[in-house]
Structures are given as C-alpha cells and as structure tokens.
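Hi everyone, sorry if this is the wrong subforum. Our group has a chain we'd like a structural model of before ordering constructs, and none of us has done structure prediction before. Sequence below.
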Amino acid sequence: MMRISKQAEYALAGAIQLAKEAPKKLTVAQIATASGCPVPYLAKIFQQLTKTNILKSYPGHNGGFVLGRPASDITVLEVVEAIEGRIDMFSAELHALGDVWSKAQEVLTTSLGKSKLSDCF
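Answer:
Right subforum, don't worry. Here is the predicted structure as tokens:
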C-alpha cells in the first residue's frame, strides 16, 4: 500500500483546520487539539508550511497561524509537496516498465493539484 507520510497527513489536517476557521488566527495547540495531531510535531510541520507561504505565522503572546492565501487557492498537492518534496510514486525500476506508471503518477498529481483545501470540508 502506498501512503503519504504521517507528517504530510498532519500538515493536511492542520491546514484544513485553519481553513475551516479562517480568517481566525489559531495557536498550534488549538489546531493540534482540533485535528488530533501532537503539538510539538505539528509545530515543526507548520514551520515548513510557513517557509513555503502556505501559512503565515504571528509570533508572541497573541500569536498563531492563519492560511497564507485563501483555502480555495491552496492545493492538497502543494501541502503534501511542501512536506514530502515532489511526489514520485514509483522507483526508477518501475518507471522502466512502461507508460502505465507515468500515467498513474500524472493522474495522482493532477487530482491532488485540482483538490483545494476548501474542497476538504
């Protein structure tokens, strides 16, 4: 079974929670509680999402996170690739087996690229 990493799952869960609450600013603890993610792990993941401008962070006592853009402008693919890098479903050996694998890769990335955070709730 092919799976995305737990990090990518948590990134999506956290980003979707922010999308649901937009434009409200939320702390990592609030997002973690609502999405079922561990706070320290989610904090590290959110640092990566902030570096790629998927999220905006506000430091300090009244700090927190918001989406960097509207949920309708952020794709599931963008969130996953911010954590995992470029999605490559198959090893080089399988790519050598023919066009079927590259077509499957294309279908997956196209589908995730068309799916917006706003479609996830």
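For your construct planning: The beta strands are 55-58, 64-67. The chain has a mean pLDDT of 91.
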